[in-house]
Each structure stands twice: as C-alpha cells, then as structure tokens.
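Title: Prediction job returns without error message
Component: structure pipeline
Severity: low
Priority: P3
Assignee: unassigned

Description:
Job completed but the reporter wants confirmation the result is attached to the right record. Sequence as submitted:
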Amino acid sequence: MRVKCIISILIFLSFFLKINSQESYSLAKCIEYSLQHHASVNIYQNNIKIAKEQKREAISYYLPQISLNGTLTDNLKLQTTIIPAGMIGDKEVAMQFGKQYTTNIYHDISQTVYNQSEIYNIKAGKVNIEMSQLKYKQNNESLICNTAQAYFQVLAYKEYESKLHDIIKSYTQLSQILELKVQKGVALETDLERIKVSLKSAEYQLSEVETQLRNAIDSLKYIMGLNLDAELCISDSVNYEIYVSPPEVMALEVNSLIEYQINKTNLKLIDYSYKAQKAERLPSVNLFARIGRQVYSDDFSKSFSSWNDYSYVGISISKTLFDGFRRSSKTKENKLTLQNADLNLHLAETNYQLSFQNSEKSLLTAYNNLNGNKDNLNLAKKILDTSSLNYQKGSAPLSVFLNDDNTYKNAQLQYINSLFSYMSERLDYEKSRGTIFNFYNELKDNQNYRIK
C-alpha cells in the first residue's frame, strides 16, 4: 500500500513539474525568439559576412600578387635558326640553339600602383556591407510585424474560446435550472428547448474556434522558427488598451524608413558601378618582378642540377585603345541605370508618403471602430443586466433575456476583435513611420501589465 502511495505521489510530482516547466511566451518574448531563431536571421547574417569578404576581395586587387611557378620542357626538336651568308661565312648556316631539357622555377610579383576602376570597387565594397546590414534590419522589421500579427490572431481566438466556455457554462447552468422548473410546472418546455439550441450552437462554435486556435498557434510557431511539434504556451499579460490612442498628426521623415535607406544605398552602389566602368578608359600602372632559376641540359637526369639564377623588374602602363565599343556601350548602360535608380528613388518618396497617409487613416478608422464597439459593449451590458433582472422577477420572457445575452456576448467578441485589429493597424502605422523598433521596445517595457 505504501509503495502504491509513493508511486502515485511521484507520478503527480512529475506531472506537476512538467506543467510548470512549460515556458510561457508573451508577445515580446515571441518576437525576441523570432529575432534569434528564425532561419532568415542566419541567412541575412551570412549575407553580411559575404559582403565583408567581398570587400576584402576588392582590396586584394590592390595588394601585392605573388605566385610560384615551375616548368619542365622537353624540346623534342629544337628550332633551327638560319644565319645569312656573309655573317659567318660565304654561305648561310643552319644552326640549333639550346638544350633538349629546360627546367625553370620562378616567382612572379606584381603590385598595382594605380587603377581607378579598382579604387571605386573598393569603395563600393564598404557600401555593399552597409546594404546587407540594412537588409538584415529590414528582415527583423518584418519578423516583428509578422510575429505580432500572428500573436494577436492567437490571442483573439483564445479570447473567443474563453468567452464560449463562459457561454456554455452559463447555458448549462440555466438549462439545469429550467429542467427543474419544467418538472415543477413553473417553466415552459419551449424555453428549455431554446436554451438547449443555444447551448448546442455554442458548443459547435467552440469546436470550430479550437481548430482555428490550433492553426493560429502553428502559424505563430512557423513565423517564430519554432518546431511545429514543440509546445507553445501563450500567457499574455499585456494590457493592450494602454496603446489605444488616435494617430498623431505629424510629417513623415522618409530618412527613418529602412526601405528608403536601402534604395539610397542601392543608388550609391549603382553610382560606383558607373564610375568604375567609366574609369576603365584610364590607364593602369603596375610594377612587376620575376625571380627565378633555370637549368639547361641534354641529359634528363641532370635537369635539376647546375641551376642558373636570373631576375628582372619593370613597370607597365596599359590602356585599351579600342574594344569594339564594348566599354562605351557598357558605360552608357550604367549611366542610364543610374538615372533610373535616381528617378525611382524620388517616386518612392511619394509612395512612402501615400503609404503613411493610408496607414494613418486605417489606424484612425480602427480607433473609431474600437471606441464604437466599446460603447456598444457598455450599452449591451446595461441592457443585459436589466433583462436578466426582469427575467428573474418573471416580468420578461426568456426569449428577451437570450436575445440580450447573445447581443452582449457578440458585443464582447466584436470589441476583442476590434482591439486586436487596432493593434495590427498600429503595427502597420509604426512600420510606415519607421518606428517599429521603438514600438517593440515599448512592448517589452510594458509586458508585465495585466489585461483589464
């Protein structure tokens, strides 16, 4: 008997510990998890590393280039040289110079002194790093918005589920009371049937909402980069009503938008590409040197003995005089591409203004809808309290109470839905202003508030 008790206690403790070991996730914690574990984060971090290596690659063309080379040549048939008559004798003489085997080992060293095109490529490397960092930041913006949107969807379904449980509990209790009253003959059978129909309808809605909630949680897991088989416990503690306020009237600072910064940076890259292509018409100056050792022999066994040293240094200046108009056409293409990028940047400024104004209007609409639903909720609550009291007194039929009760519960759901719709619009508004990271930090600071 004692063994069974001990086993039962251990089972209970393990179950209790398992429940308490499940980590609860607030909105701020879900976003933080996304920013650390989503696969796209690693991709954009790798892109930053790639950009840094590309910059090093561009710089390498301006550093000394050193190579080690070795050759072994078997001159199967030496070239014949004809010495004209009169130089050695009265007749021309055919002679062969050299040995059958030639071994050569040498270092080639070159150093670029001036190449304007490569200078622009080096400068573009720094801008390319800046571009990859901005895209990393833009991806984080998207992760914040997507995670928050999915999180609000989960919260909405959780609230629906909670309200439906309350409805089912209330209808179940009322059904039990009516059954007793019907048995005593003090209530109508039709009233009991109405309650049972409402109860069945609520149970059906609950089953549907539970399915939608599971799908919403899986969507949130996917956006967070969490395994779909993992447990995700949502325990929200933020009072989202503290974020409800009409949008402030302000001018948009386009320079604060990451997308605008990306477009400006892309314009710089195109400009450097154009300048680098244009600079190819300028001459390039290089220093070069060779240090080597050679062996000439008619015997293969002696091809690696009796080395002779040699070396030379020099300077080269090269300039392409004609390339079939290839460089000219490429330069014109890059110039037109640069002009288009500049025009697109100006068009984008107007588009950002329009997007900001639209998000501002959408936020104002969501704000008005929320306030309207809040007023409807308060009014529905007053009407329900009155009809409930009248029904209990017997001065109002059950149908009136049920209608008012349904109206109140619908008003609750509409208010919850409008609250999270407002938060979604608030996210879009903050993103269109370029302040989504500030809003995220505000969420983290207020995550310990309780829902009213």
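Comment from assignee: result matches the submitted record. The chain has a mean pLDDT of 86.
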